[in-house]
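Reply to thread "Modeling small-molecule complexes from scratch"

Following up on the discussion above, here's a worked example others can learn from. I took a protein sequence and the SMILES for NAP and predicted the complex. Inputs first:
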Amino acid sequence: MTDSPAPAPLISTTALVTGASSGIGEATARHLASLGADVALVARRRDRIDALAAELGDAGRRAMVIVADVTDRSQAEAAVQRTVDELGRLDTLVNNAGVMLLGPVADAPVEEWEQMVHVNLLGLLYCAKAALPHLLEAAGTGDRRTADLVNVSSVAGRTVRLGSGVYNATKHAVGAFSESLRQEVTQRHVRVGLVEPGAVATELAGHNRPEVQESMRKRFADMERLEATDIAEAIGYMVTRPRRMAVNEILIRPTEQDQ
Ligand SMILES: NC(=O)c1ccc[n+]([C@@H]2O[C@H](COP(=O)([O-])OP(=O)(O)OC[C@H]3O[C@@H](n4cnc5c(N)ncnc54)[C@H](OP(=O)(O)O)[C@@H]3O)[C@@H](O)[C@H]2O)c1
């Protein structure tokens, strides 16, 4: 006699993933859907999230396209509200949207700093605030009696490097906020988890000025970087633990990355 397969652990749950149009967010949305979740896909590039929603729909999942700029508070709030209105609940928020614009402080266009603060920090805060009542509701009354808020930080949220000043500042802020919020809601079984990837092969570096891209290419030339699916699987691990277990923080570097 063969055992029947275990049911998908996130069946009957809903996840919202910001920055689902590429890289880690896209891989995470796909992975959470494979674990049974219905997913709300949030990003600015409609064509990308339309294509992902069609793929997930073909695989039998409900996937919702939400075109939104998370730096606009009303759009971030509306993204959460639409998810709950149309998918019925919110069990998991993956705050992943981010930009990384590096280079020395003295040469930096201040607009790059503003963009990082707006996306990496304010966008994440807007989504967290809007999602929190729904996560508390899911943790209080849902079948699993727990809910998850996962913030995607970076190794840059733990260690500081020359040429990463403002990116470091935004990601350290994400770490500080996550820990304070964790303490606030953990006894109500909303688990706040922080994910800190090292170098992952995505589009992230491609938004930098050419001279910055060149120095990054040199730094990572001989290194096998992580794949977006590596981080997606770590997030999947965090949000499928038993109710008694909260994975507060995961730092994942490529094996060859020394700092
Ligand atoms: N790749 C790495 O080495 C690495 C390492 C450590 C941490 N991380 C972190 O991982 C996260 C994901 O990055 P990634 O590597 O997957 O890069 P990516 O492929 O460039 O993805 C970034 C995502 O953020 C979205 N985004 C950017 N600005 C947005 C806005 N204003 N509103 C809504 N969505 C926005 C983008 O979508 P649209 O452009 O379609 O809006 C895209 O889906 C970031 O927080 C990054 O800091 C990455």
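What I'd highlight from this example: The mean pLDDT is 97. The pocket of NAP is lined by residues 18-19, 21-25, 43-45, 48, 69-71, 96-100, 119, 123, 152, 154, 197, 199-200, 202-204 (CB under 6 Å). Questions welcome below.
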